[in-house]
Design a protein that fits this description.
Blueprint (H helix, E strand, L loop, with lengths): L1 H4 L2 H32 L2 H12 L5 H8 L4 H15 L12 H29 L5 H50 L16 H5 L1 H8 L1 H17 L2 H12 L6 H46 L5 H28 L6 H26 L5 H20 L37
Helix pairs in contact: 2-3, 2-6, 2-7, 3-6, 4-6, 4-14, 5-6, 5-7, 6-14, 7-12, 7-13, 9-10, 9-14, 10-12, 10-13, 10-14, 10-15, 11-15, 12-13, 12-15
GO molecular function, one term: transmembrane transporter activity
InterPro entries: MFS, MFS_dom, MFS_trans_sf
Main location: membrane
Length: about 425
Protein backbone atom coordinates (compact mmCIF):
# COMPACT_ATOMS: atom_id res chain seq x y z
CA UNK A 1 0.00 0.00 0.00
CA UNK A 2 2.89 2.34 0.70
CA UNK A 3 3.98 2.06 -2.95
CA UNK A 4 0.65 3.08 -4.41
CA UNK A 5 0.24 5.91 -1.90
CA UNK A 6 3.69 7.11 -2.92
CA UNK A 7 2.32 7.98 -6.36
CA UNK A 8 1.31 11.69 -6.37
CA UNK A 9 -1.58 11.13 -8.79
CA UNK A 10 -3.14 8.36 -6.72
CA UNK A 11 -2.50 10.25 -3.48
CA UNK A 12 -4.50 13.16 -4.87
CA UNK A 13 -7.33 10.83 -5.90
CA UNK A 14 -7.20 9.20 -2.47
CA UNK A 15 -7.69 12.58 -0.78
CA UNK A 16 -10.69 13.31 -2.99
CA UNK A 17 -12.28 9.94 -2.28
CA UNK A 18 -11.73 10.36 1.44
CA UNK A 19 -13.94 13.47 1.30
CA UNK A 20 -16.66 11.86 -0.82
CA UNK A 21 -16.71 8.58 1.13
CA UNK A 22 -17.00 10.51 4.39
CA UNK A 23 -19.99 12.41 2.96
CA UNK A 24 -21.55 9.14 1.79
CA UNK A 25 -21.08 7.39 5.13
CA UNK A 26 -22.72 10.13 7.20
CA UNK A 27 -25.60 10.58 4.77
CA UNK A 28 -27.01 7.08 4.25
CA UNK A 29 -28.27 6.31 7.75
CA UNK A 30 -29.21 9.95 8.38
CA UNK A 31 -31.76 9.92 5.52
CA UNK A 32 -33.56 6.94 7.04
CA UNK A 33 -33.48 8.53 10.50
CA UNK A 34 -34.88 11.74 9.04
CA UNK A 35 -37.86 9.83 7.58
CA UNK A 36 -38.39 8.03 10.89
CA UNK A 37 -38.27 11.35 12.74
CA UNK A 38 -40.86 12.94 10.43
CA UNK A 39 -43.29 10.00 10.18
CA UNK A 40 -42.63 7.76 13.18
CA UNK A 41 -42.78 4.75 10.82
CA UNK A 42 -40.06 2.07 10.76
CA UNK A 43 -41.37 0.80 7.43
CA UNK A 44 -41.16 4.19 5.75
CA UNK A 45 -37.66 4.66 7.15
CA UNK A 46 -36.57 1.28 5.74
CA UNK A 47 -38.04 2.21 2.36
CA UNK A 48 -35.32 4.87 2.11
CA UNK A 49 -32.73 2.13 1.63
CA UNK A 50 -34.89 0.54 -1.07
CA UNK A 51 -35.06 3.89 -2.86
CA UNK A 52 -31.27 3.97 -2.94
CA UNK A 53 -31.02 0.41 -4.31
CA UNK A 54 -33.81 0.73 -6.90
CA UNK A 55 -31.75 2.59 -9.57
CA UNK A 56 -29.63 -0.57 -10.04
CA UNK A 57 -32.10 -1.51 -12.80
CA UNK A 58 -30.60 1.36 -14.83
CA UNK A 59 -27.07 -0.06 -14.58
CA UNK A 60 -26.62 -0.80 -18.33
CA UNK A 61 -27.66 2.76 -19.24
CA UNK A 62 -25.39 4.25 -16.59
CA UNK A 63 -22.39 2.23 -17.73
CA UNK A 64 -23.01 3.19 -21.37
CA UNK A 65 -23.07 6.89 -20.41
CA UNK A 66 -19.88 6.61 -18.33
CA UNK A 67 -17.97 4.96 -21.19
CA UNK A 68 -18.84 7.77 -23.62
CA UNK A 69 -16.82 10.46 -21.79
CA UNK A 70 -13.25 10.94 -20.51
CA UNK A 71 -12.92 9.62 -16.96
CA UNK A 72 -11.54 12.57 -14.99
CA UNK A 73 -13.90 15.35 -16.17
CA UNK A 74 -16.84 12.96 -15.95
CA UNK A 75 -15.94 12.07 -12.36
CA UNK A 76 -15.65 15.76 -11.47
CA UNK A 77 -19.03 16.52 -13.04
CA UNK A 78 -20.68 13.53 -11.33
CA UNK A 79 -19.49 14.69 -7.88
CA UNK A 80 -20.78 18.22 -8.51
CA UNK A 81 -24.10 16.78 -9.72
CA UNK A 82 -24.31 14.66 -6.56
CA UNK A 83 -23.88 17.76 -4.42
CA UNK A 84 -26.54 19.58 -6.44
CA UNK A 85 -29.11 16.80 -6.20
CA UNK A 86 -28.99 17.06 -2.39
CA UNK A 87 -30.25 20.67 -2.42
CA UNK A 88 -34.00 19.76 -2.35
CA UNK A 89 -33.42 18.39 1.16
CA UNK A 90 -33.24 21.99 2.40
CA UNK A 91 -36.99 22.27 1.75
CA UNK A 92 -37.93 19.28 3.96
CA UNK A 93 -39.67 20.37 7.15
CA UNK A 94 -42.74 18.14 7.76
CA UNK A 95 -44.13 14.65 7.17
CA UNK A 96 -45.68 15.68 3.86
CA UNK A 97 -42.18 16.38 2.52
CA UNK A 98 -40.99 12.78 2.90
CA UNK A 99 -41.44 12.21 -0.84
CA UNK A 100 -38.60 14.68 -1.39
CA UNK A 101 -36.27 12.50 0.69
CA UNK A 102 -37.30 9.46 -1.36
CA UNK A 103 -36.64 11.25 -4.65
CA UNK A 104 -33.23 12.43 -3.42
CA UNK A 105 -32.44 8.91 -2.15
CA UNK A 106 -33.27 7.46 -5.56
CA UNK A 107 -31.15 10.04 -7.37
CA UNK A 108 -28.36 9.45 -4.88
CA UNK A 109 -28.49 5.71 -5.63
CA UNK A 110 -28.15 6.53 -9.32
CA UNK A 111 -25.24 8.83 -8.52
CA UNK A 112 -23.53 6.14 -6.43
CA UNK A 113 -23.72 3.71 -9.34
CA UNK A 114 -22.35 6.35 -11.72
CA UNK A 115 -19.47 7.34 -9.45
CA UNK A 116 -18.50 3.68 -8.89
CA UNK A 117 -18.32 3.02 -12.63
CA UNK A 118 -16.35 6.22 -13.31
CA UNK A 119 -13.98 5.57 -10.40
CA UNK A 120 -13.07 2.09 -11.65
CA UNK A 121 -12.03 3.57 -14.98
CA UNK A 122 -10.14 6.44 -13.35
CA UNK A 123 -8.15 4.06 -11.12
CA UNK A 124 -7.34 1.89 -14.15
CA UNK A 125 -6.14 5.00 -15.95
CA UNK A 126 -3.92 6.25 -13.11
CA UNK A 127 -2.49 3.05 -11.62
CA UNK A 128 -0.25 0.43 -13.29
CA UNK A 129 -1.74 -3.04 -13.46
CA UNK A 130 0.63 -4.42 -10.79
CA UNK A 131 -0.70 -1.85 -8.28
CA UNK A 132 -4.42 -2.22 -8.93
CA UNK A 133 -4.92 -4.60 -5.98
CA UNK A 134 -3.05 -2.20 -3.69
CA UNK A 135 -5.14 0.75 -4.84
CA UNK A 136 -8.39 -1.14 -4.31
CA UNK A 137 -7.14 -2.42 -0.94
CA UNK A 138 -6.31 1.09 0.28
CA UNK A 139 -9.74 2.41 -0.69
CA UNK A 140 -11.52 -0.57 0.82
CA UNK A 141 -9.62 -0.16 4.11
CA UNK A 142 -10.71 3.47 4.32
CA UNK A 143 -14.29 2.56 3.41
CA UNK A 144 -14.39 -0.07 6.16
CA UNK A 145 -12.97 2.43 8.64
CA UNK A 146 -15.59 4.99 7.73
CA UNK A 147 -18.31 2.38 8.17
CA UNK A 148 -17.15 2.09 11.76
CA UNK A 149 -17.74 5.75 12.56
CA UNK A 150 -19.63 7.29 9.64
CA UNK A 151 -23.21 6.11 10.25
CA UNK A 152 -22.95 6.77 13.98
CA UNK A 153 -21.43 10.18 13.30
CA UNK A 154 -24.20 10.94 10.82
CA UNK A 155 -26.88 9.93 13.31
CA UNK A 156 -25.22 12.01 16.05
CA UNK A 157 -24.86 15.02 13.76
CA UNK A 158 -28.50 14.75 12.71
CA UNK A 159 -29.57 14.68 16.36
CA UNK A 160 -27.33 17.63 17.17
CA UNK A 161 -27.73 19.97 14.19
CA UNK A 162 -30.64 18.60 12.14
CA UNK A 163 -30.97 17.41 8.57
CA UNK A 164 -30.31 20.75 6.86
CA UNK A 165 -26.81 21.26 8.26
CA UNK A 166 -25.98 17.59 7.73
CA UNK A 167 -26.99 18.00 4.08
CA UNK A 168 -24.66 20.98 3.80
CA UNK A 169 -21.76 18.97 5.21
CA UNK A 170 -22.40 16.11 2.77
CA UNK A 171 -22.54 18.55 -0.15
CA UNK A 172 -19.21 20.00 0.97
CA UNK A 173 -17.65 16.54 0.82
CA UNK A 174 -18.72 15.95 -2.79
CA UNK A 175 -17.70 19.44 -3.92
CA UNK A 176 -14.30 18.95 -2.27
CA UNK A 177 -13.86 15.64 -4.09
CA UNK A 178 -14.66 17.31 -7.42
CA UNK A 179 -12.22 20.16 -6.77
CA UNK A 180 -9.36 17.83 -5.83
CA UNK A 181 -9.85 15.45 -8.79
CA UNK A 182 -9.94 18.48 -11.11
CA UNK A 183 -6.29 19.06 -10.10
CA UNK A 184 -5.22 15.72 -11.58
CA UNK A 185 -3.16 16.04 -14.73
CA UNK A 186 -3.56 12.51 -16.06
CA UNK A 187 -3.60 11.90 -19.84
CA UNK A 188 -7.14 11.45 -21.12
CA UNK A 189 -7.90 8.80 -23.70
CA UNK A 190 -10.63 9.70 -26.19
CA UNK A 191 -13.54 7.27 -25.75
CA UNK A 192 -13.84 5.06 -28.80
CA UNK A 193 -17.03 4.95 -30.79
CA UNK A 194 -18.28 1.38 -30.56
CA UNK A 195 -19.75 1.56 -34.05
CA UNK A 196 -22.73 -0.51 -32.97
CA UNK A 197 -26.34 0.32 -32.36
CA UNK A 198 -26.89 1.88 -28.96
CA UNK A 199 -29.03 -1.06 -27.88
CA UNK A 200 -26.11 -3.41 -28.56
CA UNK A 201 -23.75 -1.07 -26.70
CA UNK A 202 -25.98 -1.16 -23.62
CA UNK A 203 -25.61 -4.94 -23.33
CA UNK A 204 -21.86 -5.00 -24.03
CA UNK A 205 -20.99 -5.14 -20.33
CA UNK A 206 -23.18 -8.18 -19.69
CA UNK A 207 -21.80 -9.93 -22.78
CA UNK A 208 -18.24 -9.34 -21.60
CA UNK A 209 -19.01 -10.74 -18.15
CA UNK A 210 -20.62 -13.81 -19.69
CA UNK A 211 -17.83 -14.38 -22.23
CA UNK A 212 -14.76 -13.96 -20.01
CA UNK A 213 -14.22 -17.26 -18.07
CA UNK A 214 -12.75 -15.78 -14.87
CA UNK A 215 -15.38 -13.04 -14.64
CA UNK A 216 -18.18 -15.49 -15.42
CA UNK A 217 -17.12 -17.85 -12.65
CA UNK A 218 -16.59 -14.98 -10.20
CA UNK A 219 -20.10 -13.61 -10.78
CA UNK A 220 -21.72 -17.07 -10.65
CA UNK A 221 -20.00 -18.00 -7.40
CA UNK A 222 -20.46 -14.67 -5.69
CA UNK A 223 -24.05 -14.44 -6.97
CA UNK A 224 -24.80 -17.81 -5.36
CA UNK A 225 -23.37 -16.63 -2.05
CA UNK A 226 -25.24 -13.31 -2.29
CA UNK A 227 -28.56 -15.15 -2.45
CA UNK A 228 -28.21 -16.02 1.25
CA UNK A 229 -25.66 -13.54 2.62
CA UNK A 230 -28.36 -10.88 2.82
CA UNK A 231 -30.30 -13.05 5.27
CA UNK A 232 -27.91 -11.90 7.98
CA UNK A 233 -29.30 -8.34 7.87
CA UNK A 234 -32.43 -9.64 9.63
CA UNK A 235 -30.94 -12.69 11.37
CA UNK A 236 -28.55 -10.58 13.41
CA UNK A 237 -31.48 -8.95 15.22
CA UNK A 238 -32.97 -12.37 16.05
CA UNK A 239 -29.52 -13.51 17.22
CA UNK A 240 -29.26 -10.57 19.63
CA UNK A 241 -32.87 -10.74 20.83
CA UNK A 242 -33.61 -14.47 21.01
CA UNK A 243 -30.08 -15.79 21.39
CA UNK A 244 -28.11 -13.32 23.49
CA UNK A 245 -31.23 -11.92 25.23
CA UNK A 246 -30.01 -8.38 24.79
CA UNK A 247 -31.52 -5.13 23.59
CA UNK A 248 -31.52 -4.43 19.85
CA UNK A 249 -28.99 -1.63 20.42
CA UNK A 250 -26.37 -4.35 20.99
CA UNK A 251 -26.42 -4.89 17.23
CA UNK A 252 -24.38 -1.69 17.04
CA UNK A 253 -21.62 -3.31 19.10
CA UNK A 254 -21.54 -6.31 16.76
CA UNK A 255 -21.42 -4.03 13.71
CA UNK A 256 -18.42 -2.26 15.24
CA UNK A 257 -16.66 -5.60 15.75
CA UNK A 258 -17.41 -6.49 12.13
CA UNK A 259 -15.94 -3.15 11.06
CA UNK A 260 -12.69 -3.95 12.88
CA UNK A 261 -12.51 -7.20 10.94
CA UNK A 262 -13.13 -5.22 7.76
CA UNK A 263 -10.16 -2.96 8.50
CA UNK A 264 -7.89 -5.99 8.90
CA UNK A 265 -9.24 -7.53 5.70
CA UNK A 266 -8.65 -4.33 3.78
CA UNK A 267 -5.03 -4.17 4.92
CA UNK A 268 -4.26 -7.74 3.79
CA UNK A 269 -6.44 -7.95 0.67
CA UNK A 270 -3.80 -6.80 -1.81
CA UNK A 271 -1.25 -9.30 -0.50
CA UNK A 272 -3.78 -12.11 -0.88
CA UNK A 273 -4.57 -11.07 -4.46
CA UNK A 274 -0.86 -11.20 -5.30
CA UNK A 275 -0.52 -14.66 -3.75
CA UNK A 276 -3.78 -16.37 -4.80
CA UNK A 277 -5.04 -14.27 -7.70
CA UNK A 278 -8.27 -12.29 -7.84
CA UNK A 279 -10.59 -15.31 -8.01
CA UNK A 280 -8.61 -16.90 -5.19
CA UNK A 281 -9.05 -13.81 -3.00
CA UNK A 282 -12.77 -13.69 -3.84
CA UNK A 283 -13.08 -17.41 -3.03
CA UNK A 284 -11.32 -16.92 0.31
CA UNK A 285 -13.66 -14.10 1.28
CA UNK A 286 -16.85 -15.98 0.37
CA UNK A 287 -15.61 -19.16 2.08
CA UNK A 288 -14.72 -17.35 5.33
CA UNK A 289 -18.28 -16.06 5.54
CA UNK A 290 -19.47 -19.67 5.88
CA UNK A 291 -17.97 -20.63 9.27
CA UNK A 292 -18.76 -17.14 10.55
CA UNK A 293 -22.46 -17.70 9.82
CA UNK A 294 -22.45 -21.22 11.31
CA UNK A 295 -20.82 -19.91 14.50
CA UNK A 296 -23.70 -17.46 14.95
CA UNK A 297 -26.11 -20.41 15.18
CA UNK A 298 -24.82 -20.86 18.74
CA UNK A 299 -25.56 -17.82 20.94
CA UNK A 300 -22.40 -16.82 22.78
CA UNK A 301 -21.01 -13.32 23.08
CA UNK A 302 -17.36 -14.26 22.60
CA UNK A 303 -18.10 -16.70 19.80
CA UNK A 304 -20.29 -14.01 18.26
CA UNK A 305 -17.42 -11.50 18.42
CA UNK A 306 -15.11 -14.00 16.67
CA UNK A 307 -17.76 -14.72 14.03
CA UNK A 308 -18.35 -11.02 13.29
CA UNK A 309 -14.60 -10.39 13.06
CA UNK A 310 -14.36 -13.22 10.53
CA UNK A 311 -17.36 -11.94 8.58
CA UNK A 312 -15.88 -8.44 8.52
CA UNK A 313 -12.54 -9.82 7.37
CA UNK A 314 -14.22 -11.58 4.45
CA UNK A 315 -15.96 -8.57 2.93
CA UNK A 316 -12.91 -6.55 1.74
CA UNK A 317 -11.37 -9.72 0.28
CA UNK A 318 -14.52 -10.18 -1.79
CA UNK A 319 -14.66 -6.56 -2.94
CA UNK A 320 -10.95 -6.14 -3.74
CA UNK A 321 -10.77 -9.50 -5.50
CA UNK A 322 -13.79 -8.79 -7.70
CA UNK A 323 -12.92 -5.15 -8.45
CA UNK A 324 -9.32 -5.94 -9.37
CA UNK A 325 -10.42 -8.85 -11.57
CA UNK A 326 -12.85 -6.61 -13.46
CA UNK A 327 -10.23 -3.89 -13.94
CA UNK A 328 -7.58 -6.33 -15.19
CA UNK A 329 -9.86 -8.35 -17.49
CA UNK A 330 -11.83 -5.53 -19.12
CA UNK A 331 -10.80 -3.22 -21.97
CA UNK A 332 -10.68 0.37 -20.67
CA UNK A 333 -13.38 1.57 -23.08
CA UNK A 334 -15.81 -1.04 -21.75
CA UNK A 335 -15.05 -0.69 -18.04
CA UNK A 336 -18.00 1.55 -17.14
CA UNK A 337 -20.55 -0.86 -18.59
CA UNK A 338 -18.90 -3.91 -17.05
CA UNK A 339 -18.67 -2.35 -13.57
CA UNK A 340 -22.30 -1.23 -13.71
CA UNK A 341 -23.47 -4.64 -14.94
CA UNK A 342 -21.49 -6.44 -12.23
CA UNK A 343 -22.89 -4.09 -9.57
CA UNK A 344 -26.42 -4.87 -10.70
CA UNK A 345 -25.78 -8.63 -10.82
CA UNK A 346 -24.43 -8.59 -7.26
CA UNK A 347 -26.89 -6.09 -5.76
CA UNK A 348 -29.94 -7.83 -7.25
CA UNK A 349 -29.44 -11.14 -5.38
CA UNK A 350 -28.48 -9.21 -2.24
CA UNK A 351 -31.70 -7.18 -2.34
CA UNK A 352 -33.75 -10.36 -2.85
CA UNK A 353 -31.81 -12.02 -0.05
CA UNK A 354 -32.47 -9.19 2.40
CA UNK A 355 -36.22 -9.32 1.68
CA UNK A 356 -36.33 -13.12 1.88
CA UNK A 357 -34.42 -13.09 5.16
CA UNK A 358 -36.88 -10.64 6.69
CA UNK A 359 -39.73 -13.03 5.78
CA UNK A 360 -38.02 -16.30 6.71
CA UNK A 361 -36.85 -15.14 10.14
CA UNK A 362 -40.50 -14.91 11.18
CA UNK A 363 -41.17 -18.49 10.09
CA UNK A 364 -38.00 -20.50 10.76
CA UNK A 365 -35.58 -20.69 13.68
CA UNK A 366 -32.80 -18.14 13.13
CA UNK A 367 -30.22 -20.83 13.99
CA UNK A 368 -31.38 -23.02 11.11
CA UNK A 369 -31.12 -20.05 8.76
CA UNK A 370 -27.59 -19.21 9.92
CA UNK A 371 -26.54 -22.80 9.21
CA UNK A 372 -28.15 -22.54 5.77
CA UNK A 373 -26.19 -19.36 5.08
CA UNK A 374 -22.99 -21.08 6.21
CA UNK A 375 -23.52 -24.14 4.02
CA UNK A 376 -24.42 -22.19 0.87
CA UNK A 377 -21.60 -19.64 1.17
CA UNK A 378 -19.05 -22.39 1.87
CA UNK A 379 -20.25 -24.25 -1.24
CA UNK A 380 -20.02 -21.03 -3.27
CA UNK A 381 -16.50 -20.42 -1.94
CA UNK A 382 -15.39 -23.94 -2.91
CA UNK A 383 -16.84 -23.44 -6.40
CA UNK A 384 -14.83 -20.23 -6.72
CA UNK A 385 -11.66 -21.76 -5.29
CA UNK A 386 -11.73 -24.56 -7.86
CA UNK A 387 -11.65 -21.89 -10.55
CA UNK A 388 -8.86 -19.82 -9.01
CA UNK A 389 -6.43 -20.77 -11.80
CA UNK A 390 -8.58 -18.79 -14.22
CA UNK A 391 -6.86 -15.69 -12.82
CA UNK A 392 -3.15 -15.93 -12.18
CA UNK A 393 -1.71 -14.12 -9.14
CA UNK A 394 -1.24 -10.42 -9.78
CA UNK A 395 2.19 -9.27 -10.94
CA UNK A 396 4.58 -8.43 -8.14
CA UNK A 397 5.10 -4.79 -7.33
CA UNK A 398 8.36 -3.57 -8.87
CA UNK A 399 10.83 -1.75 -6.69
CA UNK A 400 10.83 1.62 -8.41
CA UNK A 401 12.20 4.77 -6.78
CA UNK A 402 9.50 7.36 -6.39
CA UNK A 403 11.74 10.13 -7.69
CA UNK A 404 14.62 9.78 -10.16
CA UNK A 405 17.72 11.88 -9.89
CA UNK A 406 18.80 13.65 -13.06
CA UNK A 407 21.33 11.60 -15.00
CA UNK A 408 24.86 12.88 -15.12
CA UNK A 409 26.08 14.33 -18.41
CA UNK A 410 26.93 11.58 -20.87
CA UNK A 411 25.45 8.87 -18.67
CA UNK A 412 23.03 6.25 -19.93
CA UNK A 413 19.43 7.27 -19.31
CA UNK A 414 17.57 5.27 -16.69
CA UNK A 415 15.14 2.75 -18.14
CA UNK A 416 11.51 3.82 -18.01
CA UNK A 417 8.84 1.46 -16.80
CA UNK A 418 6.21 0.90 -19.44
CA UNK A 419 2.68 1.32 -18.24
CA UNK A 420 0.15 -1.23 -19.38
CA UNK A 421 -2.23 -0.26 -22.15
CA UNK A 422 -4.85 2.03 -20.75
Amino acid sequence: MRTVLGRPDFRLLFGALLASMAAESILLLALAIWVKDLTGSDGLAGATIFAIIAPMVLAPLVGWAVDRYPRRPFFVAANLATAALLTPLFTVSRAGDVWIIYVVAGLYGLSYLTLSAALAGLIRQLVPVELLADANGVLQTVRQGLRLVGPLAGAALYAAVGGWLLTGLAMTGFVTAAAVVALLRAPEATPADGGSRWTAELGAGLRHLAGEPALRRALLGYGLGSLVMGFTESLIFAYVDQGLRRDAAFVGVLVTVQGIGGLVGGLFSAALVRRAGEVGALATGVTLFGPAAVALAYPSIWLGFAALLLAGLSLPLITVGLNTLIQRRTPPGLLGRVVSAAEALVSGPQAISIGAGALLVGVLDYRVLFVLVGVVTTAAGIFLWRGRRLSAPAPSVPRIPLQRRPAAAGAEPEPQVAHPTR
